[in-house]
Amino acid sequence: MKVDAELPFKASSKVADVARTLEETGFDGAAAIETGHDPFLTLMLAAEHSTRLGLHTAIAVAFARSPMTLASTAYDLNGFAQGRFTLGLGSQIKAHIEKRFSMPYSHPAARMREFIEALHAIWANWQEGTRLDFRGQFYNHTLMTPVFTPERHEYGPPRVLVAAVGPLMTEVAVEAGDGVLVHPLTSERYLREVTLPIVAKSLAKVGKTRADVQLAYPVFVVSGDTEETFAKTARATRERIAFYGSTPAYRGVLDLHGWGDLQPELNLLSKQGRWKEMGDLIGDDMLDAFAVVAEPDQVVAKLRQRYTGLVDRVAVGFNFVARDKRKELVRALQAA
C-alpha cells in the first residue's frame, strides 16, 4: 500500500522543508489541496525540492477552470516533476462554482467526463501532433497554433484521478480517468458495498482491469500520544465529518448507515455558521465508522485491517506522533 501525506496549504518556504522531510521519512507521495490557495504553486516547489516523491492535487477544482488552462498547467508541472505528478480533480458543489468562481455548473458527472476527454484531446495534440478538433456539449477546443503549442516532453501528460462519492462520478473516474480519489466521508462499508461494485462494473464496461486504475483514500485518523492530542484530533475529525455530512450530495453515505436524517440538520446549522454545534452531533459510532480511532501503536494495524485490498494508497501523515516515530509507521503500512 502506498502512503501519502499533505503539503502545506500555500506555497511558502515551508513547502521545501516539508517535501524533503516527507521524502526522507519514506512517504510515497504528497498532496496539495485547493482551499484558499493554488495547489499547483505548492506542488511546483515540492517538485523542485524532491526527487522521487509522487505529487498530486487532492483536489484541484475542475469546473473553476477551462480544460485548456488546466491542460497547460498540468502538462508543464508533470514535465518539471519528471513524470511524478498526478492531476486529481474534483467538481465542487454548484454554489461554489457559480457564486465563488462565477463559472457554469450543470450535469456534473457528464461535464467531468467531457472535461477529461477534452484534456486528453488537447494533450494528444501537444504530445502526438493529433489535430485538435474537440466538440462537446460543454467544451469546444478546435484551435491550436504553433506559437501556443508547448514543446513535447518525454514524460507526457499526467494521470488523472477524480474525486467521487456517488455512482455517476465514480463511473466517470474509472471509465474516463485513471482512478478514484475516494472522498474522506467514506466508510469501509460504503467502499465495499457501493464504491467497489461500481468500479468493477465500470472496468468491465470499458475493458480495463483493476490494475489500470488507482484508488486513493485520505483517511481520517484519531490518535495521539497524549490525551490532549487524542482529544484534539477527535474534535477536529468530528467537525470535518459534520462539514462534509452537511452536503446534500453526500447523504447517500449517511443513508447507508441509517444516519441520513442527520444531513438536513447539519445543512441547516452550516447555513447558520454553527460549526461547533455541528461537530457535537457526530457521535462515537459515526466517528468510528468514518475514522480510524486507535492508540498510536495500533493505528497501522487497524488501517491494514480495514483497507488492505480495498484501496491502493492512503493519505495519513502520522502527525499525531513525534517525527522520529513516523518512518517506522510509514514502512509498516507500506508492507500491507
Tell me the helix content. 40-55%
Strand content: 5-15%
Structural class: alpha/beta
Cα-based radius of gyration, to the nearest Å: 20 Å
Order of helices and strands: EHEHEEHEHHEEEHEHEEHHHHHEHEH
Widest beta sheet: strand line-up:
1-2-3-5-8-9-10-13
Distance between the termini: 5 Å
Give me the count of strands.
13
* Unreliable residue stretches: none
Number of helices: 14
Outline: globular
Major beta sheet, specifics? 8 strands, parallel, barrel
- What is the overall pLDDT average? 95
Any key phrases for this structure?
8-stranded parallel beta barrel, alpha/beta, 49% helix, 13 strands, two-stranded antiparallel ribbon
Characterization of the model:
It is a single chain. This protein is α/β, with parallel strands linked by helices. Helices cover about 50% and strands about 15% of the residues. It contains 14 helices and 13 strands. It has an eight-stranded parallel β-barrel with strand order 1-2-3-5-8-9-10-13, surrounded by five helices. Helix 2 links the parallel strand 2 and strand 3. Helix 2 runs parallel beside helix 3. The relative contact order is 0.12.
